[in-house]
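Dissemination and training. As part of the outreach component of the grant, students in the summer workshop were shown how a complex can be specified as a set of sequence lines and then modelled as a single object. The example used during the hands-on session is reproduced here so that future cohorts can follow it. Participants entered these lines:
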Amino acid sequence: MTFLLALALLAGAAAPARAYLDPGSGSMLVQLAAAGFAGLVVLIKLYWKRLVSDIRKFRK
Amino acid sequence: MSDTVMNYDGGSFRDPDSRVFLQGGHVLRGLSAQGAGEWRAVSKAKFFRKAVDEGRIVRSEERKGEAPWELILVHERVPFVSYPYEWGFAMLQDAALLTLDLQLAALAEGFTLKDGSAYNVQFHGTRPIFIDVGSFERLKPGSVWAGYRQFCEQFLYPLMLRSYRGLPFGPWLRGRLEGIGAADASRLLGWRGALKPGVFPHVILQARLQKGHAADDADLRGEIKEAGFGAELLAAGLQRLRKLVSDLRWDPEVSAWSGYGCGEHYSAADLRRKDGFLREALGARARSLAWDLGANRGDYSRVLAETCHTVVALDADAATHEGLFRELRSGPMKERVLPLAVDLADPSPGQGWLGKERRRLEERGRPDFVLAFALLHHLRLSAGVPAAELADWLAGLGADAVVEFVAKEDPAARRLLARKDDRYADWTEASFQALFSSRFQVIKREALSGGLRVLFQLRPRRAA
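and obtained this result:
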């Protein structure tokens, strides 16, 4: 029991600090698109990185 | 102090680091250790102190913390609390611009708002003021604005609906306190709205991305940061959003009401009589809160504001309310008169969690003076409210009142009945006077020319 509690506390401590309001993944990404050309570049970079890492995972 | 002893405000439970409660007529805010840390940082920031001095952020004094709170703030009180579904277009737009201006100023000094709620703004007359000081926190690197979606749902989409499609947003905001979702906004704006400025990124794309990423549980903030998104890009996006919001326009068409009050129903002598009757009833006594029911162009709200600290000017007609707000905003009574779009036959209810998050109109401050010129016959003849219930309701407010009785034979009242059977036997002056004099002391009665419109000065009979 104590072990489980400690594990839960550890998991809690390791979790990144979150806001009380869920910003929503889609709404986070759209802010990049809405920040003009430079924001779009960042958005494309983010999707590119995801694509590359997906391909790597697929190859493995 | 335990949670049950603290008189928490029903609308402030969402943020566990900052909760509002009432104590001895004061509005207090309890801050957790985390919340107190953010407060100590932001309250020293230049932008914050400047905004407080300019009356754009509510004034707060620190008081020693009591468990469970690390620190307690005592806030300056807003004279009368109002909600976005009672605001018109320009009011919501002013509140939106205040939110964005504060967010931009905060960003420049390394802070951000953690939400984007329209309920964080209140009005001192026509001046918007930001009340949720617990909303500021230090910006973490690579952050987007956590409150952006909420800002869209409670500010941007309602404004777009009004500006691009002419739809009133009040019923939508009252129907769903969270605001209008992106997918719903997209459907409501339709293909005609799709080409309007800002609709593609903020509405259509956002709705699409929300759907596509609903199950996305990746560390998106980390990814966004790693891809090179920083405070400058965040500010650039917010600047564009600010321009979009400030460029939105809505000019109401002239409604049946917005032209009313220019003397159509009254001779110049009768207008002078009404003005004189009201002034005499008010006397020189200073009052704190007056309600002007059916305020119309606000002529009498301005008279009330000469002796009453705050006047809440209620009118159901959107075009009339919009005109009144814009006129007041640049006039001498801009800090005194708060115009709200409220239909008294269907006033704002208590809603949200336990029905207490947003309070009923009557629960937000009792008036000490009530004016109802040319209103009650609408509630009786159009909305069908029985005369006795009208008298009960007015008496329940417990304030001195000046009311106008308009007889069924009056040309304006006849128009209300033109396509209806007359089932309003209780609407005669004799019955009106009998109903009201059992609940009020009639101080004065004065008939206007023709005798079909009669003014009454009433004082409530205190319950024995």
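The radius of gyration of chain B is 24 Å. Students were then asked to discuss how this feature might be tested experimentally.
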